[in-house]
């Protein structure tokens, strides 16, 4: 097919079914509901062939004015290598405006992103599986609606961007847990249905011990459930995740455009991402 036969349009609700077919082609676990949540938080573009079939997708998820995540970049196998990925990325740049950009690259995506000026800043590790029976950690409690403002403030401080809309979307779908000391929330985590089971993330904590307690809190109430956690290699919790039954199954390279300096890159309190796509 010629490149001219493909039209780029705004990503709308009607494109979700075609988008799910593309992500299944890649063996990505996203259900229609997972695309729905991503689209609720994002604007994006689709490539349509002359039959109106979705042959490419891209989403841009803004976190306030602070930054935007580019995610769900997929081009149908039959039309790769013809510049469609680059066209979708150019559309994403227009949608993101002046915001600094972040993404987590697969091996397939790396060459394209490098050519467009993205620079690697870290390694993201995907862990998933069924957790064996797990004792309930002490000091963790389920969050209440009254905790939401403090959770948002803690998240913004740790992540370095305004993810209020993401946290609101998570409250519609999932549960939150917190660690409270002297009346103040020091750490939080969320869990929501995703893909083959549930994903735990974000996990924001001041220490690996607190991060593990939060993950353990959710795991303890779900013996045998299928869980996923996406973590940065620098958090140091990957080995523990594997020990409790969440095997390392893949991941990607965190990339930024423009490149960040070392201090900006370090987000030591972010123990798990919302997931690889959303950062
Ligand atoms: C990544 C992906 C979207 C690229 O789509 P595409 O339409 O084939 O990309 P393009 O044809 O626009 O290629 C863009 C540039 O990257 C280069 N490129 C693409 N894939 C490459 C590869 N595997 N090796 C080397 N260069 C590559 C092209 O040569 C092109 O360079 P140019 O614009 O200077 O000529 C596609 O491979 C894909 O959908 N992969 C599976 C899903 C995935 O992993 N997505 C990335 C998620 S982060």
Describe, in plain words, how this protein is organized in 3D.
With 279 residues, this protein is α+β, with helices and mostly antiparallel strands. It has 2 domains: 3-99, Gcn5-related N-acetyltransferase (GNAT) (Aminopeptidase, 3-Layer(aba) Sandwich); 126-251 and 259-272, Aminopeptidase (3-Layer(aba) Sandwich). The chain is built from 9 helices and 13 strands. Strands 1, 2, 3, 4, 5, 6, 7, 8, 9, 10, 11, 12 and 13 form a 13-stranded mixed β-sheet that branches. The longest helix is centred in the N-terminal third of the chain and has 13 residues, at 84-96. It is globular. The protein starts with 6 loop residues before the first strand and ends in a 7-residue tail after the last strand. The model has no long low-confidence stretch (mean pLDDT 96). Residues 26, 73-75, 80-86, 105-106, 108-109, 111-112, 115 line the site of coenzyme A.
Helix-strand blueprint:
Layout: E1 7-10, H1 16-25, H2 32-40, E2 43-48, E3 54-63, E4 67-75, H3 84-96, E5 101-105, H4 110-115, E6 119-130, E7 140-142, H5 148-159, H6 164-173, E8 175-181, E9 184-194, E10 197-204, H7 208-220, E11 226-232, H8 238-243, E12 247-257, H9 262-265, E13 270-272
Parallel strand pairs: 4-5, 10-11
Antiparallel strand pairs: 1-2, 2-3, 3-4, 5-12, 6-11, 6-12, 7-8, 8-9, 9-10, 10-13
The protein binds coenzyme A.
Coenzyme A binds next to β4, α3 and α4.
What's a quick, concise take on this entry?
The chain has nine helices and 13 strands. It is an alpha+beta fold and 279 residues long.
User: What is the CATH class of the largest domain?
Assistant: Alpha Beta
**Mean of pLDDT:** 96
Structural class: alpha+beta
Bound molecules: coenzyme A
Gross morphology is globular
């Amino acid at each position: 097919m010629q490149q001219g036969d493909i039209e780029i349009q705004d990503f709308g609700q009607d494109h979700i079914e075609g988008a799910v077919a593309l992500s299944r082609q890649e063996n990505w676990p996203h259900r229609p509901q997972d695309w729905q949540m991503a689209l609720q938080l994002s604007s994006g573009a689709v490539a349509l062939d002359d039959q109106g079939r979705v042959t490419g997708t891209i989403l841009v998820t803004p976190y306030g004015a602070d930054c935007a995540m580019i995610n769900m970049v997929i081009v149908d196998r039959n039309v790769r290598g013809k510049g469609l990925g680059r066209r979708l990325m150019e559309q994403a740049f227009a949608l993101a405006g002046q915001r600094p950009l972040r993404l987590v690259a697969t091996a397939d995506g790396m060459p394209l992103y490098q050519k467009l000026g993205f620079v690697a800043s870290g390694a993201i590790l995907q862990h998933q599986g069924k957790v064996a029976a797990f004792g309930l950690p002490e000091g963790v409690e389920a969050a209440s609606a009254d905790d939401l403002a403090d959770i948002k403030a803690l998240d913004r401080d740790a992540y370095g961007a305004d993810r209020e809309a993401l946290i609101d979307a998570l409250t519609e779908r999932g549960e939150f847990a917190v660690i409270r000391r002297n009346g103040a929330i020091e750490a939080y985590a969320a869990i929501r249905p995703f893909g083959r089971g549930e994903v735990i993330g974000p996990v924001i904590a001041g220490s690996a011990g607190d991060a593990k307690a939060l993950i353990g809190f959710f795991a303890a109430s779900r013996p045998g459930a299928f869980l996923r956690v996406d973590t940065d290699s620098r958090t140091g919790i990957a080995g523990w995740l594997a020990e409790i039954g969440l095997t390392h199954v893949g991941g990607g390279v965190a990339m930024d455009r423009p490149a960040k300096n070392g201090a900006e890159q370090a987000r030591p309190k972010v123990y798990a991402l919302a997931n690889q796509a959303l950062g």
